[in-house]
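User: what does the whole thing look like in 3D?
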Amino acid sequence: MERPLTENIRSDGQPVGIEEYEKLGGYQATRKALGGMSPQEITAAVKNADLRGRGGAGFPTGIKWSFIPMGDAARHPKYLVCNADEMEPGTFKDRLLLEGNPHQLIEGMIVSGYALEADLAYIFLRAEYTLAAKRLGQAIAEAYAKGYLGRRILGSDYSLDLRLHLSAGRYICGEETALLNALEGKRAIPRAKPPHPQTSGLWGKPTIVNNVETLSNVPHIVDRGAEWFKSLSHTDCGGTKIYGVSGRVKRPGLWELPMGTPAREIIDLHAGGMRNGYGFRGVIPGGASTEFLLEEHLDVRMDFDSLPKAGSRLGTGTMIVLDDKTCPVGMVLSLETFFARESCGWCTPCREGLRWVVQIIDAIEKGEGAGEDLDILEGQCRLLAPGHTFCALAPGAVEPLQSALKYFREDFERHIKEKGCPWR
Amino acid sequence: MLTEGERREIEEEIAKSERKRAASVEVLKIVQKRRGWVPDDLDELAATLDMTPDELDAVATFYSLVFRKPVGRHVILICDSVSCWVMEYESMREHLSERLGIGMGGTSTDGMFTLLPVACLGACDRAPVMMVDEVLYTNLTTEKIDGILEAYRRGNM
Amino acid sequence: MATIYIDNKPYVVKDGQNLLHACLSLGFDLPYFCWHPAMHSVGACRQCAVKQFRDEKDTKGKIVMSCMTPAAEGTRISIDDPEAMEFRASVIEWLMLSHPHDCPVCDEGGECHLQDMTVMTGHNYRRTRFPKRTHRNQDLGPFINHEMNRCIQCYRCVRFYCDYAQGRDFNVFACHHAVYFGRHRDGVLESEFSGNLIEICPTGVFTDKALKRHYTRKWDLQTAPSVCVHCGLGCNTIPGERYGALRRILNRYNGEVNGYFLCDRGRFGYEFVNSGQRVRTPLMKNNETGALEPATKGDVIERLSHILYFGANVIGIGSARASLEANFALRALVGPDRFFVFDETRRRLMATMIGILKSGPARTPSMKDVASSDAVFILGEDVANTAPMLALALRQAARQRPMQDVAKLKIPLWDDTAVREVIQGEKGPFFIAAPHATKLDDVATETYHAAGEDIARLGFAVAHELDPAAPPVPDLKEEALLLARRIALFLKGARRPLVVSGMSGTSDSLLRAAGNVAWALCKTGHDAALCFTTDECNSLGLGLLADLGDGYVSDIGKAFALAEKGKLDAIIILENDLFLREDISRVERFLEGCGHVIVIDHLFSRTTGKADIVLPAGTFAESDGTFVNNEGRAQRCFQVFVPEGDIQESWRWVRDALNAARRPIQWRTFDDVVAAMAGEMQQFEAVAEIAPPAGFRIAGQKIPRQPHRYSGRTAMHAQIDVHEPKPPDDADTPLAYSMEGFEGIPPSALVPRFWAPGWNSVQSVNKFQEEVGGPLRGDDPGKRLIEPTGGKEVPYFHEVPGAFVPRKGELLIVPLYHIFGSEELSVLSPGIAGMAPHPYLALNPFDAEGLGMNAGDEGEVVISGNTYRLPITLMASLPQGVAGLPSGLPGLRGIVFPAWAKTGRAT
Ligand SMILES: Cc1cc2nc3c(=O)[nH]c(=O)nc-3n(C[C@H](O)[C@H](O)[C@H](O)COP(=O)(O)O)c2cc1C
Ligand code: SF4
Ligand code: FES
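Assistant: Here's the predicted 3D structure for the full assembly of 1488 residues, as structure tokens:
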């Protein structure tokens, strides 16, 4: 089984340095791209590879890139931004790539930048990733020193500057348009789309935002071709995926596996199943803003197309397991508290609705629930649907709640009836 | 009043930015790094960015890791998001509260610690976790917390 | 044009609109909060949701925000869709979760957009039982009250204050449900447009602090269409009265003039009407004691009949703050050759200005035209202080050029955030040449600070660069020449270039230079506009009335000369304090030589102090009248309430005086005066058409000044009489002092307030417009009296002034204008008085150093024999050799600018 993204990551916790990276075949893709491929060829390869965005929405990367104005038609500077904000609860996959193999990401950005004719690239990193910040800072300096970044990279006509931006908290910064506002030094409020960042992004100029994992795949696609990349996957969506499991399993962690690996295999085989004394009750498959799945769903393939059929989403591919000794109401309360706190405050449904949702679940959890509370919660789930709010935060926020109300309804009802949490 | 050192670091940061205002968050953090928080008098700081204090404060108050109130010598960011919650975050929080004699948002009377909740720290496989200043602590237990607090108190960290 | 389908019915709408705009224009009641017709869409509140369908077959549809969706050809939506209705009601439910529900004690109650929308969506039951979010309020100064708990976070305040008006001391703070709108710290709002927050805020967060001191609900206010009297722009207003006192002023939408906004001077300046300085009864001088004493109307008329006997030598002084009708009446009384207007400087400026506007091809722009200009050149004006709302329009103009690029990206211009993102604060070509830094400098491409002559020279040079036929400027400094070339280049490249100058520069060369620039642009094929500011609400009207030819000198200086000959029996001074106009000792000498001094005014002044007879005039709120604004637009202002006692319109006092002088005159009503004026003076022919005449009725009804919910009509007089008094008649206008009458939408000039069923707030203005944000139904009110000549031939001015030469031992004192303080009437409002600066003398730092003075020192300046002792303020932008004194401040009145003066340390 091939694990292009992670196979070089060292087990001693140290990052792959530039020399080691080069020795392992690193920066070959850069040479290949800048040495002979046209930007259009790279975009075509990424498109053919069926690479879909790993930031959560799964938008096909090549198609996203194809909307960027190229050549004389384009306004400059053009930007490539790496979304390394990773604040979705339960998600910790980008940290591995950032800390373990920063050059892989940097190379991904060089090659992608070249494909997009970008002038300037940013890595938008959450402030709490202090180790990643240090390692990225060093890796960027190394790449500059070796001529992979800066003016006329490797003697080609292509120049690219790469800067690391450290954020200051707020989950909404991960939303790509809010991220652009954050980069501009503004309040991180999302922007309406259209216009998409490809038309008007950072400082109103054409911009592409991609996730760390997405960009880290690009050198491998350029290096080894679209067909090879597609062959890594079990499904229509190309490549591997870094899956993760947290919660009361025997071995919480991350594994790079073929895209479309079934959930059960990941939980039982790689994570070692439930800890002794704990049973499986449910799982949120792809970070906090995806819907719960139950035991009966676990044979689903973990990919962008299969999970919706089971009633959830791949999201970030990092699962959070709910065991049978933990209160689902409390778990949902934790989730919604997060979302309500991280609402940017721009649109009404999210700003006010999520606060209300938290107030209600909190009351239920404390044993102060009232008869109509569940109806109101269900109503809120319906009302905070995609398109109703300004961005995807609030619709994401109600996904776990909506499914919890469906799958764990009796838990909610018991809280109300027994005037307290049965798990305490 | 900005110190000479702060001023120099701010100017460097601004010089690196594509546009002055883009450096606002960084500049706030430069002040915060030295003083623990961003004091109320933003006039001078804002002026370095060609901003008004109102414009800068609009940014400062948006971001959760820009502190607009005084904090203790060390800031404990305890992750209260879902994986940590499942893994007994609440006992950790209660333990910290009890040891420090403060609730969330409080600063211990000796001025050593401020306790704040933080969104998922991206270390869910090692939950529960917290950060003290820049350092991540994972797989927390109450004993481990005691040891960490002790080390900071003794100035070993 | 595009056809869209709303609930399966086809409608034709204009291209390039969003659905909310289109639906509102079609008359649908679609609720909204964050959208504003002048500030467009941002999609924050989610209140305007509708269901959109892909095509006829789509039955499921999806919720979209109408304000963020283009009304493109074939768009199908439903407003009545149950899911959309449920969603809209939930938006209100969400907003109400933390709203304090304090309507009974809230100043916005009864005209609250949030109340209207709540009713409109049908949300009526409170389901939450949890604590509300609460905030601390701030002290924002004398104008604006802050009550943050009522906030519904629509972001309109910050979008108006920061984005539209470009104020920088206000913002939104914090995150999630804690977002807070206010200032970084408590303090007076710095924007001169802060009062618009009152109307911009859809609920009671920002309310009128002056109103609060004499509060009345909207439905209890008697209102009439009016025009602001505090500068020459003529913004349209709605003053409201109760119990004989003016309570507040709101914007009256006029698409061509002020749109949705007012400046703070216009909004809060009205309190002079209620002030203790009002003349409320006729007064006559007691010949023994020399004191003015109250008299009956009969007594004064009797006295007038003695003074104004047949053949008496009487002169009249007109007023730029009195109506055309009052001035016309006085002119008729004394005769055209004995009617004097303006001081010498203003007369000269006005003559030049009118000459330029009448003899050349450049058109005066309305403020709407100003806002759509894409290159601006200002000569000698501190617009933000002399014509504040023009500054707001100019700020919009600065965005026009960059907006042209946005359109190329196919981003709809109503998508406000997207537009701003692309523009990134970029400004179009905008040049300011002024004697000192101004508040508009932040939008300027380049500024040039110089003395008036040098600014004029720059202007002449620009004109010459544009068209070599315009005269060249001899000995122009290299720096100015290069600047002139840059300015010319940018103006040439613009689609709608604009030149701005005006009276406050006190120099007619400046006006001529501006004229040459605008003419040169016209001549070279540009659609150029020429905007002159005027200083008072009827300056241009008075200028047109006086028919100021070059040979015909009718300014006060001429009157002074007449008086010196010592043959005058009486002088009638109309709404004017001469001591503001001319040097104090000159005025005193003059009045002594005038025989009987008769003053018609509403305020006591130094001039009334010299009077033998004072006749109490109605203010703008107690009179009907016509004012001509700087555009040349004649606008009608209507009596809001009947004044107490013997107070009456100035023209009526003049008529009474005419009768007393046994020159019986047939003017019974206002329309009679207008007809006489229009008949006699061709330039005012159109004045009769500004508004329908008194006999106008709709369905046999007058238009009520009182809302149909007006309360207490019996009770308010109960301490006098329990019977309801008969409402006063209004023979002058189609408006009635009553709550009965026509309830629909009257002709635009007669709109007494904005209200429509279901729309109690100011947002009801939508219903009064042909299209939302467009002209009022039946076109925006007012008639333009000056149109440019059609011809291409331009009569360029050739007298280019010499460069400014500083003098040894003297400084040139120029006026510095203050929005709060420089205007005579508004400064009587306590709020505005509190914002006015203390008198000071501004010096260039080098001049100060030469005089051995520092900021804060007491300086002394001697102007025509009068000594002023003032603290020194340093003003680096003032040119060397030039000093500034605040214009019009109490204590600094009667100074004739510009003046050379000896300056030094106070001795
Ligand atoms: C509230 C919110 C938070 C998000 N946070 C992240 C994030 O932390 N990292 C990320 O890569 N994408 C995040 N996304 C998704 C981004 O908006 C965007 O789709 C993604 O960065 C695009 O990259 P991709 O195409 O490579 O997936 C978030 C989206 C939303 C709505
Ligand atoms: S859904 Fe609305 S309030 Fe929530 S984060 Fe997105 S834009 Fe902000
Ligand atoms: S008016 Fe459309 S979202 Fe606010």
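In plain terms: Chain B has a mean pLDDT of 96. Chain B touches chain A at residues 16-19, 21-26, 28-29, 49, 58-59, 62-66, 77, 80-83, 85-87, 89, 118-127, 131, 134-136 (CB under 8 Å).
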